[in-house]
């Protein structure tokens, strides 16, 4: 599945992008522990063709994202996790490549549960006719294309992006890239779960209807249900336990 989670992305086709990805996955997976020296370009050549320029550019990128740090007289080392920019879309994608573990998945969906219902509530209160048209177009892309096709994925991400835009709150919109990246990579994990995707379409439509009706509380409740459902299908895809099935049933049947 191609990455549609943001307009621009670190170019994996460029050598420095490949080096950055390899080092990042090694750091996130624990293969290179916090405080350990990064392998130099000579050590990496066994797996990938690395030039000194590409290596330096990759290290510069990872430093900006908080994954590595340069220490005077002691070289460039992996940074501790608390310094990583976990909301950076590249860092999120590297996490899923390294180890989509249950704790990290739950943490990301916990962020979504805090943020997206509030965004949906504001969107219902502040949306314009143009916002509604944008959300409706995104929903059509989801319903008129095969599940998990490129067009369908773009529609799903656009649906949530449009709701963020409709909230008319610039600081909240700064969190959109993290939520959209989480959506993108949860769909990677769930790819093939076509029945679950089909089941989610009425939930998306109901969120849209609540926003059209300017019912902020109902939009928030329905968005909460959608996020919980998505968490459960994602966890099921990586064979770990689900959460709150009784709460899901209550939320989904809220009028």
UniProtKB/TrEMBL annotation:
Residues 13-81 form the HTH gntR-type domain. PANTHER family: GNTR FAMILY REGULATORY PROTEIN, TRANSCRIPTIONAL REGULATOR, GNTR FAMILY. The keyword Transcription regulation applies. InterPro entries: GntR_C, TF_FadR/GntR_C, Tscrpt_reg_HTH_GntR, WH-like_DNA-bd_sf, WH_DNA-bd_sf. This is FadR/GntR family transcriptional regulator. It comes from Bosea minatitlanensis. SMART domains: FCD (SM00895), HTH_GNTR (SM00345). Keywords: DNA-binding, Transcription, Transcription regulation.
């Amino acid at each position: 599945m191609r990455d549609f989670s943001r307009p621009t992305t670190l170019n994996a086709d460029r050598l420095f992008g490949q080096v950055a990805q390899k080092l990042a996955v090694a750091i996130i997976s624990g293969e290179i522990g916090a405080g350990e020296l990064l392998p130099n370009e000579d050590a990496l050549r066994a797996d990938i063709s690395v030039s000194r320029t590409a290596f330096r550019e990759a290290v510069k990128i990872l430093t900006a994202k908080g994954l590595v740090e340069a220490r005077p007289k002691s070289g460039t080392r992996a940074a501790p996790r608390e310094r990583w920019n976990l909301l950076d879309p590249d860092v999120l994608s590297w996490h899923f490549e390294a180890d989509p573990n249950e704790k990290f998945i739950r943490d990301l969906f916990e962020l979504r549960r805090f943020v997206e219902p509030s965004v949906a509530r504001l969107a219902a209160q502040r949306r314009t006719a143009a916002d509604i048209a944008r959300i409706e177009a995104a929903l059509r892309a989801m319903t008129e294309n095969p599940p998990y096709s490129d067009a369908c994925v773009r529609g799903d991400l656009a649906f949530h992006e449009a709701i963020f835009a409709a909230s008319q709150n610039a600081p909240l919109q700064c969190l959109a890239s993290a939520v959209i990246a989480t959506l993108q990579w949860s769909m990677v994990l769930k790819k093939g779960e076509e029945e679950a995707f089909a089941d989610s379409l009425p939930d998306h439509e109901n969120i849209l209807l609540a926003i059209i009706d300017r019912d902020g509380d109902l939009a928030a409740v329905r968005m909460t249900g959608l996020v919980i459902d998505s968490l459960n299908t994602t966890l099921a895809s990586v064979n770990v336990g689900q959460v709150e099935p009784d709460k899901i049933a209550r939320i989904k049947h809220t009028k």
